[in-house]
Structures are given as structure tokens and as C-alpha cells.
């Protein structure tokens, strides 16, 4: 079964991960995000219970 032979596919996977890790990732990391996370206090909404007419 030829799909079990890792010889060509392992090299392709290794080269693609190295390309991503060494070239693509450092170019993408310096971009700034447009929406910075803020520490807003969480607002809790008042939950009114459902009134069942038959109880």
C-alpha cells in the first residue's frame, strides 16, 4: 500500500511547517488587532421568571 510510505509526505509536511513557523508566522504576528480587549465590567441582566398560567 503506497499511502503507508511516509518518505515523500513527511518531507512535504516538515517543509510546510518550517515555512509556516519561520517565514509566515513572524510576518503575521506584528499586525495589530483593531479591537483590543478591554476590561469592561460584566453586566448582569435581571431575569424574570416565566409565569405559567396553569400553576
From TrEMBL:
Subcellular location: Mitochondrion membrane
One Pfam family hit: ATP-synt_8
Domain of life the protein comes from: Eukaryota
Keywords tagged on the record: ATP synthesis, CF(0), Hydrogen ion transport, Ion transport, Membrane, Mitochondrion, Transmembrane, Transmembrane helix, Transport
Recorded GO MF terms: proton transmembrane transporter activity
InterPro entries the record matches: ATP8_metazoa, ATPase_protein_8
A Gene Ontology cellular-component term: mitochondrial membrane
GO biological process: proton motive force-driven ATP synthesis
Membrane topology listed for this record: Single-pass membrane protein
Protein family according to the UniProt entry: Belongs to the ATPase protein 8 family.
Protein name in the entry: ATP synthase complex subunit 8
Gene source species: Psophia crepitans (common trumpeter)
